[in-house]
Amino acid sequence: MSSASEEGSSSDEDHEVEEVKKEIWKGHYSSAHKILLVGEGDFSFSLCLARSFGSARNIVATTVDTHQQLVKKYSNVAENVRELQDRGSVVLYGVDATAMSNHFFITTQRFHRIVYNFPHVGFRFPEANGCQIKLNKQLVKGFLKNAKMLLKKENGEIHVSHKVGEPYDSWNLDKKAEKIGLVLYERSPFFKKMYPGYAPKRAHGAAADEAFKLGESATYKFRLG
Predict the structure, then answer these.
(1) Is the model's pTM score more than 0.85?
(2) Which residues are in the 25S rRNA (uridine-N(3))-methyltransferase BMT5-like domain (predicted)?
(3) Given 56, 71, 83, 222, which is the most exposed site by the fewest CB atoms within 10 A?
(4) Is residue 10 scored above 70 in pLDDT?
């Protein structure tokens, strides 16, 4: 027969297991989701999620830049990456959002959430210029095509956070997605304050480390059609 102390110990252990399994939400994202973050700048968004969840073992965070390029662009990126990795995240460099489904590691994974915050090719022309809009539309189209291949079939979602209004509405995110078999099921206002520590950056040119002003923005959520 078990003693009272043994029963109490067993109860405590069960309680600890329950605490470990408890689901934590930050904004649209859960500690129970396997999350792929694309086009991360200084990795501050990834780190916000990791800190909120208490772990980053469910996060794969990627950037198109090399580690050397990142250190030159962002003053605090080395510390952010170090903490992410210490918390268990996979951090990948040189990942092209328009070809990521062919990446040697990513192609073996399937994700509940694939997130691209404020995609942009860089300021090659004025923002409202037709050529600039075309380049950004090509970036988003390539991302959506690749993300679709990496999405879990059940409850999988692709999120693109994006400015609202012209010329950004001319990117036609919902139409691009529809053409490749994705459905826009929700558009939610994006509030940076929901993600403490997130510091959007300009990411391109001499002012890469300066703040990127979001203004009115939204998260577009797509599912498989």
Answers:
(1) yes
(2) 36-202
(3) 71
(4) no
Please tell me the distance from the alpha carbon of residue 120 to that of residue 204, in angstroms, as a whole number.
Answer: 9
Lowest-confidence region among 2-11, 84-93, 169-178: 2-11
Quote the mean pLDDT of the chain. Answer: 90
Q: Mean pLDDT over residues 120-146, rounded?
A: 91
What strand order describes the sheet that includes 157-163?
Answer: 90-92, 59-62, 35-38, 113-117, 157-163, 217-224, 182-189
CA distance to 27, 60, 90, 107, per residue, from 49 (Å) = 9, 11, 14, 23
Cα 221 to Cα 41: distance, rounded to the nearest angstrom: 21
Specify the pLDDT at position 65.
95
Residue 183's closest CA among 136, 217, 220?
220
Token pair for 217: 């923005």
Cβ atoms of 24 and 56 within 8 Å: the answer is no
The two structure tokens encoding residue 97: 């959002």
